[in-house]
């Protein structure tokens, strides 16, 4: 998980520039990115990418809609300090929540792929697909429900398309295998279900 293999051609370099290039590439040309930018045994860039997206998302929410996180039963204000609580939330997101969540979802996704796709790529590729599919959600904190909902829908589509591309299977099988993980990540984790419900309402 901490090994960087040879840098593929489409935005997988180290550091902030590599992450920014990967973000632009997966949004602009997902087919090319998932074909060329996902390498066997190369989870570290994907993990770093997912952590950055999660931190940007949470930081955005804390900046424009802090009531969604702070002062709730899950995250009470600690010691009467909003700033300290925000810092702690970001730290927990980066160190615990994002890495653990990524690998839990990837484990679920791997099991579902085992049940639906016979000749598939490895676990590390699955981790990377889940990680890079979160790219649009770096903007899902924007307090416009239509924009945020579009980000979650685009992310779910990227996950399903990425599974089909990387595991060389049909889009139908990818939908069957990826439906539950997509719902968990984008419907629950990035609040897509609530955003869509608010638009319908």
Automatic annotation (TrEMBL):
Topology class, membrane: Multi-pass membrane protein
Pfam families per the UniProt record, alphabetical: Yip1
Domain Yip1: start-end pairs: 25-187
Record InterPro entries: Yip1_dom
Record carries keyword Repeat: no
Highest taxon in the source lineage: Archaea
UniProtKB keywords: Membrane, Transmembrane, Transmembrane helix
Localization per record: Membrane
Transmembrane intervals: 44-62, 74-94, 100-117, 129-162, 174-197
GO cellular component labels: membrane
Protein name stated in the entry: Yip1 domain-containing protein
């Amino acid at each position: 998980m901490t090994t960087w293999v040879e840098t593929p051609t489409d935005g997988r370099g180290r550091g902030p520039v590599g992450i920014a290039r990967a973000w632009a590439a997966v949004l602009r040309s997902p087919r090319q990115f998932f074909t060329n930018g996902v390498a066997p045994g190369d989870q570290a860039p994907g993990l770093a990418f997912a952590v950055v997206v999660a931190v940007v998302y949470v930081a955005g929410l804390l900046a424009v809609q802090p009531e969604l996180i702070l002062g709730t039963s899950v995250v009470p204000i600690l010691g009467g300090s909003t700033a300290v609580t925000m810092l702690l939330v970001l730290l927990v997101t980066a160190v615990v929540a994002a890495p653990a969540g990524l690998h839990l979802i990837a484990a679920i996704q791997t099991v579902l792929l085992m049940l639906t796709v016979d000749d598939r790529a490895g676990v590390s590729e699955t981790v990377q697909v889940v990680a890079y599919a979160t790219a649009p959600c770096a903007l899902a904190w924007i307090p416009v429900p239509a924009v945020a909902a579009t980000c979650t829908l685009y992310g779910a589509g990227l996950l399903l398309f990425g599974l089909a591309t990387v595991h060389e299977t049909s889009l139908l099988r990818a939908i069957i295998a990826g439906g539950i993980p997509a719902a968990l990540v984008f419907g629950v984790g990035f609040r897509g279900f609530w955003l869509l419900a608010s638009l319908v309402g």
